[in-house]
Design goal:
By secondary structure, the chain is α+β, with helices and mostly antiparallel strands. Helix content is about 40%, strand content about 20%. The chain contains nine helices and six strands; from the N terminus they run ββαααααααβββαβα. Strands 5-4-3-6 form a four-stranded mixed beta sheet. A two-stranded antiparallel ribbon has the order 1-2.
Length: about 230
């Protein structure tokens, strides 16, 4: 906990707020240039910048996950307003945070992720030679029109629900996430490798040993990887 010098209460001095954890996350975000990278990929003409809003939502997800309509309340109980220098009024915070997501399209997310991966490796002097890649899935209930939601192989044994597949690539020793990709729920794991290799080699310029699950290793994938 810490004391926020900018917020006074009834003349009694500073208000006690959460300091250490948000300060540490802000320092990491600053080191990898998170805010600048997001704002460059998703520029906004007016209102609160997307980069700062993304950091607020990410920090909340890490420290105290809660619905968007209560994030402003959490934000005010931390030292983040002083660190970011922006106000997030509770009466408009939900709309502000929700509209922020409209700027984070698939292409923008990919641009941000690639830039962050390169910055992380540079900032922390990482020279990975081995990488781990795997796929998982998340099922959803209810009705929705998103094309990415499809019936497929369910790791959760919920054949009655549509799902979305996610792939993740991380470095080995130390383990640092580099990028992820979302696929339609009916995509077979082995079919995700080609797109991953494009990002792995062409966009990040990485070279090394890629470790995958045996279910992903098919004759066609071996040919594509070698090529």
């Amino acid at each position: 906990m810490g004391t926020s010098p900018g917020r006074k209460k009834n003349g009694e001095g500073g208000v006690s707020v959460e300091y250490g954890t948000v300060k540490a996350l802000h320092a990491i975000a600053d080191r990898i240039g998170l805010i600048a990278i997001v704002n460059q990929a998703a520029p906004k003409r007016n209102g609160l910048p997307v980069g700062e809003l993304v950091l607020i939502m990410a920090a909340n997800r890490i420290l105290d996950p809660r619905p968007k309509y209560t994030i402003a309340e959490w934000y005010q109980r931390t030292y983040m307003p002083e660190l970011l220098g922006i106000d997030l009024p509770p009466d408009s915070a939900y709309q502000t945070l929700t509209r922020c997501l409209d700027y984070l399209t698939d292409d923008v997310q990919m641009e941000i992720e690639m830039a962050l991966a390169g910055r992380v490796m540079e900032s922390f002097h990482l020279k990975p030679e081995s990488f781990i890649y795997d796929v998982t899935s998340t099922f959803v209930e209810g009705e929705g029109g998103a094309e990415i939601l499809q019936y497929g192989y369910s790791r959760d044994h919920r054949l009655d629900c549509r799902q979305v597949n996610y792939s993740l690539c991380v470095t080995m020793d130390p383990t640092v996430p580099l990028f992820h990709q979302a696929f339609p729920g009916n995509t077979v794991d082995s079919k995700t490798v080609k797109e991953t290799m494009v990002r792995f080699k062409d966009k990040l310029g990485l070279d090394g040993c890629l470790v995958v699950d045996r279910g992903i290793v098919t004759s066609a994938n071996i040919v594509e990887i070698v090529d």
